[in-house]
Amino acid sequence: DAGVIQSPRHEVTEMGQEVTLRCKPISGHNSLFWYRQTMMRGLELLIYFNNNVPIDDSGMPEDRFSAKMPNASFSTLKIQPSEPRDSAVYFCASSSGQGSVYEQYFGPGTRLTVT
Amino acid sequence: TQLLEQSPQFLSIQEGENLTVYCNSSSVFSSLQWYRQEPGEGPVLLVTVVTGGEVKKLKRLTFQFGDARKDSSLHITAAQPGDTGLYLCAGSNYGQNFVFGPGTRLSVLP
Fold first, then answer.
1. Left, alpha or beta for B28 (phi > 0: left; psi -120 to 50: alpha)?
2. Could you tell me if B78 lies within 8 Å of chain A, comparing CB atoms?
3. pLDDT for B39-53, tens place per residue?
4. Of B22, B40, B53, B96, which has the most beta carbons under 10 Å away?
5. Across A47-74, average pLDDT
6. B24 and B7 Cβ atoms separated by less than 8 Å
């Protein structure tokens, strides 16, 4: 399996522009997670989906952020309008498991710079 | 709210030394994972521990889950420069509520 795929790997945009990050989870995984990582705040969970349904979006910073999962093999995280403080590395992870054991597998991340 | 604390935050050691890093919580988890993250990459899963008191070994790395399933430790024997990275622990309860600690940033100097 190719693992979790994210695109683009790097994104530089100007303040006010719309940004769309994309993720393809590992085939067969039924949960998908979006995280943001900065030096100051570490790894923060933004939202997660189970069977394509958003379960917990309490980590989404504000209405400028939205996430969708139209099918089991694709998800997007959109920021509109973007602001400099959104600059971070955004990770997508997918998970599967049974019983008490669930493991997350991360993509390589998208490094977003908003100028 | 479940929280995970990790200590130390930063650790710089010489090649060949041993070290232990800790992951602590006041909450019980059904499983706990350890990840290593290198610069410019996503976290990579190292191990999952499930049973209280469980010990798992991965070459020079030894992972232990506390008896009460609230804490864990990672011991590295004879550290090498390739062990350098950010070590993250994460707990979950039956696939829900994944919680990550802030990480221990390890630097192994040659």
1. beta
2. no
3. 999 999 999 999 999
4. B22
5. 93
6. yes
